[in-house]
Structures are given as C-alpha cells and as structure tokens.
C-alpha cells in the first residue's frame, strides 16, 4: 500500500471533489433562475455588483490572513492576477453576455452550453504545461468519458454539434472566450490555493476583480445605469453572493486545494447534470433514454476522476542554506533549502532524499513556521543522517502528505509532533 493510501489522502480528494460539484450546482441555479433576471442591465455592471458585494462579505479574511498574504511570492501574485482578470472579470462578463445574447435570439442556449465543454480541454492542457501535473493515464480516459457524457446529457434531445455553431454570432464567440477564461483560471487558481488558505484566496479574488470591474465600468457604463437596478435585482444579488458568487467560490477553493486542477475542471462538468435535475423538478422536463445512460456514465466518471486525480510525483532539487538552528536545539536538526516555491500545498510531507549517491528518507516542512511568521520556509529532516551539508544540493522526492501545519504552544508539543511524524514515516514501506 502506498503512503498516499495509508495517510488517508483519498478521503480528502473525495471531499474536495464533492465541494467542487456543490459549487457547480450553485452555478446551475444561477444560470437557470437568477442571471436571466438581469438581462436589462449591462453585463459589466452585473459583474461589478456581484463581486463588490461578495468582497464585502469575504473581506474579513483579508485581515485574518494578511501576514501570509504579504509573504506570497511573485509567481503567486501573478497567478492571483490571472484568476481575477480571466476567471473573475473576463470569464464572468463573457458568459453573462453569451446568455444575454441567447435571450436576444442571436445564438441558442444550447450553443452557449456546448462551447463551455471546451473549458476542460483548455484546463487539462494548461495544467500539464504550467503546473506539470503528470496524472495517471486512466485519469485522462475518464476525463474524456466525462466530457462526452456531459455532451449527451445536454444535447441528446437537440442533436447540436460544433459543426452547427455559427461563429459569426457574438454569443458563440462570447461563450468560447468564457470557456478559455474559466479553464485557465482553474489552473492558476490551483497554483495560488496551494500556498494560501482557500478563504483568503476567495477574498483576494473578489477584491481584485471588484477593482478591475470598477475600472471597466468607469469608462464603459454610464453612471445612470446604477439607478436601473431594481429592488428585486438587489435582492437577487444578495442571493448570488451567498450561492453562485462568493459562496460558491468559497466552497470551490476549499475543493481545489484538495484535488489537482486537471480533476477540478472535469468535476465542474457536474453542472449539466444538476441543471437537468433542476429542470425536471421545476419545469417537468424528462430525460430521454440516451440522457439517462449518459447520466449513469457521468456519475461513474466523476467517482473515478476523484480517485485517479492525483499527481504521480513531485521531484525537485534545492541547495542547503543556513537557518535559525531551531531544529538542532530541539534535537532534530533540519536542512533549510533555498527552494520555497513548490506547486504543492503547505504541510508536513514524507520525502525521499538523494545526496552523494545515497538515498535517505525523512520529513519535509513546507510553509509558514508558525501563525505569525511572515516568510515561507522549506526544511528537510533527514532520518539517520548527521554531517555538515551546507551549500550542498539535495534531490527530493515528495512521497505523501502526513499532516497540515500546526501552531504549537511550547517546544515540547512540537517535539511530540515530530516523533509522531517519524513514526508515520517508519510505518510505511517504500
């Protein structure tokens, strides 16, 4: 049995998968029942209002995690900027415009939905290129199955295909742009959620998107349009904040921290299924036989994806640098590495270390040393090793996560935690 199985990571992946699917359910509710109510308003204004209200709700997390936000690397800030620009601003504006175009008759609702099936393709490619997510081959097979099943669920009655889409219509182009924006946002969102608490990620995304949306409407939307927002629409904006807006992003980033970006974007395809269920209960539209078969296949694919959606290995090299010597004082000297910008979540990991043509096993602490520390560190505790290795390069392979980072009230509790971590390390066969 692998260390990942023994340390219970699969249960975390399933919880993350369910969180993403719940967020997709909220998006279905939004598209079917809420967003059409804003048809008379400029899409840019709708996006600004839902984000600024969402930011007001989430803003306390900015202050709560400010010490960690300040420690984010340049790469993380660039990733956050991409998520805010593409996932928050461009994606939301263009999918809103696409649905408004469908209400105008420029394009069918089915066209908008089918073009959203391109989203996983963009995300899978970018996750492989940018995050270097090397997944089990079976994952990609089930990902294709999920995309095809979603296609049949949404279009078994209409028979629409990509060949029928009129790209000259703005609605089709809007949906295509939204698919790329959301797909790429999933990848960069995974990058930032690895290094920052999901609550702070959601708050930062809504805050930055609010600023970007305000700048956009300042030059494109007349001020008088704010007065067009009716009391009913203000109430619906409140519902959006709690469900498909800030609420769903809060849940989504909780899930994204626990599953690879590749798996997350396919799990988001839950929304065609949830939309059909809602359509059945509220509009009494029944599924035909092909849709029912596709539904069963989709549920199986989701389960397989949640299990298989785990990167195979994380391997990196780093140079040993001088630290504060706290580990040595505790009786567990550690090697501090200059590599502190890995694309994995913060935590304590079991690792395999290669140095001087020899292999060792040990523990890796990646993240903040305590709640108040404003810098990320990466430290390796090499089991059964002693010697001076300052300036040497270590090759490290991450085997599995043992636990989350904790704050300890005194050194004695920290020592006890290290002993338990080493015991977990010894209990696993490699």
Structure description:
- There is one protein chain.
- The protein has about 425 residues and is α+β, with helices and mostly antiparallel strands.
- The chain folds into two domains: about 300 residues, no CATH class; about 110 residues, Elongation Factor Tu (Ef-tu), domain 3 (Beta Barrel), CATH 2.40.30.
- It is built from 18 helices and six strands.
- The protein has a six-stranded antiparallel β-barrel.
- α3 crosses α12.
- The chain is globular.
Structural Rg? 24 Å
Distance between the termini: 9 Å
**What series of H and E elements makes up the topology?**
HHHHHHHHHHHHHHHHEHEEEEEH
Low-pLDDT runs of 5+ residues are 1-9
Strand content: 5-15%
List how many beta strands DSSP finds: 6
Going across the major beta sheet, what is the strand order? 1-2-5-4-3-6
| Shape estimate | globular
Which bin fits the share of residues in helices? 55-70%
Offer a few descriptive terms.
2 domains, globular, 59% helix, 6 strands, Elongation Factor Tu (Ef-tu), domain 3, 430 residues
Layout of SSEs?
Blueprint: H1 3-6, H2 9-34, H3 43-58, H4 60-64, H5 66-69, H6 74-104, H7 109-116, H8 119-129, H9 137-155, H10 170-193, H11 198-220, H12 231-242, H13 246-256, H14 261-267, H15 270-283, H16 289-308, E1 314-321, H17 326-329, E2 335-337, E3 347-355, E4 358-368, E5 376-382, E6 393-403, H18 411-426
Antiparallel strand pairs: 1-2, 1-6, 2-5, 3-4, 3-6, 4-5
Helix pairs in contact: 2-13, 2-15, 2-16, 3-6, 3-11, 3-12, 6-10, 6-11, 7-10, 8-10, 8-14, 9-16, 10-14, 11-13
């Amino acid at each position: 049995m692998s260390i990942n199985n023994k340390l219970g990571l699969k249960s975390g992946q399933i919880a993350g998968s369910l969180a993403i699917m719940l967020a997709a359910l909220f998006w279905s509710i939004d598209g079917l029942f809420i967003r059409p109510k804003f048809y008379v308003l400029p899409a840019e204004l709708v996006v600004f209002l839902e984000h600024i209200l969402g930011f007001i709700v989430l803003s306390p997390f900015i202050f709560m995690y400010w010490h960690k936000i300040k420690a984010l690397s340049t790469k993380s800030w660039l990733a956050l900027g991409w998520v805010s620009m593409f996932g928050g601003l461009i994606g939301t504006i263009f999918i809103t415009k696409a649905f408004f175009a469908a209400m105008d008759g420029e394009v069918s609702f089915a066209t908008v939905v089918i073009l959203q099936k391109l989203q996983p393709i963009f995300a899978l490619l970018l996750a492989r290129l940018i995050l270097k997510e090397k997944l089990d081959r079976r994952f990609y097979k089930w990902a294709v199955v999920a995309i095809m099943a979603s296609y049949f669920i949404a279009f078994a009655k209409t028979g629409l295909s990509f060949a029928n889409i009129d790209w000259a219509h703005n609605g089709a182009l809007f949906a295509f742009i939204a698919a790329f924006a959301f797909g790429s946002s999933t990848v960069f969102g995974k990058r930032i959620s690895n290094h920052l608490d999901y609550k702070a990620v959601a708050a930062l995304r809504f805050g930055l998107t609010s600023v970007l949306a305000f700048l956009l409407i300042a030059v494109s939307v007349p001020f008088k349009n704010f007065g067009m927002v009716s009391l009913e629409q203000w109430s619906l904006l409140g519902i959006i904040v709690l469900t498909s807006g800030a609420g769903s992003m809060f849940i989504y980033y909780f899930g994204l921290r626990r599953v690879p970006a590749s798996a997350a974007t396919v799990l988001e395809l839950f929304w065609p299924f949830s939309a059909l269920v809602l359509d059945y209960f509220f509009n009494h539209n029944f599924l035909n036989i092909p849709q029912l078969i596709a539904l069963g296949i989709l549920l199986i694919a989701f389960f397989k994806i949640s299990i298989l959606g785990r990167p195979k290995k994380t391997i990196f090299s780093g140079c040993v640098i001088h630290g504060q010597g706290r580990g040595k004082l505790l009786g567990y000297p550690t090697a501090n590495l200059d590599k502190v910008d890995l694309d994995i979540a913060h935590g304590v990991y079991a690792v395999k270390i290669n140095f001087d043509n020899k292999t060792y096993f040990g523990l890796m602490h990646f993240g903040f040393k305590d709640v108040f520390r404003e810098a990320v560190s990466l430290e390796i505790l090499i089991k059964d090793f002693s010697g001076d290795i300052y300036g040497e390069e270590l090759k490290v392979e991450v085997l599995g996560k043992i636990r989350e980072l904790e704050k300890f009230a005194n050194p004695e509790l920290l020592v006890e935690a290290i002993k338990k971590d080493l015991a977990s390390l010894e209990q696993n066969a490699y």
